[in-house]
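Reopening this one. Same input as before:
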Amino acid sequence: MTFIYDFIRVLILGIVEGITEWLPISSTGHLIIVEELIGYISSEKFMEMFQVVIQLGAILAVVVIYFKKLNPFDKTKSEKEKNSTINLWINVIFACIPAAIIGFLFDDWMEEHLFNPVVVAISLIVYGIAFIVIENNRKHIKVQHNDIDKLPIKTAIGIGLFQVLALVPGTSRSGSTIIGGLLLGSSRYVATEFTFFLAIPVMFGASLLKIVKFGVPSFYEATMLIIGMLVSFVVSVLVIKFLLSFIKKNTFKVFGYYRILVGIIILLYFQVLR
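Same output, byte for byte:
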């Protein structure tokens, strides 16, 4: 029976991860809340690692969908296209440096002090308001970057600085970088795509750090982790395609309202009703 219960938990967590990793509503925040409601798999220490490493499944979805665009060695590409791909990777690497440094230095402190429902709820609400305000004032922000291949490195680094905000659970890595992209003059589509690409080195690095800290998982734990990653991969493929289609005709305001609503519900549940 333990295996069945854990299998159901993993399915739920994989689905939640696959949906919330790419929508700007905070995957870590939702995973923390779901974990509070459905309990641990194996141990609390394993769950701390699981919440991060499960994101590898979601990242693999980006790699699969964008493999041609991200591959500078594709023989079907012209020299110009190959150079554009290399420049894209340079932008991604430089944009990841700020979050990588801060995350490495303060990972343990943030886990101890910030990974709780109250912080998640406040972050959800604050950045939900930010999305609504930014979209309402979008007409005052000139869109300068409509092609991700022509995104200036200074803009990429600026977006990377916004990514540091996502180290606070509930903020949302995709949410903070999309907000940064919009404020720095990127179109919704470019800001979203660049967010996808930024996730690759960041999540691989974060997962490696967690695995090293946790050590070698048992066969049972490894099985649960692999199932979770597979589920998050399948769900992520669907969600990424949905989001890219959605933002062609819609704003991010709906995600702002959702964040505020969920944040309020979390505060009421954990501070009043619980």
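So the earlier flakiness isn't reproducible anymore. For the record, Residues 79-113 form the longest helix (35 residues).
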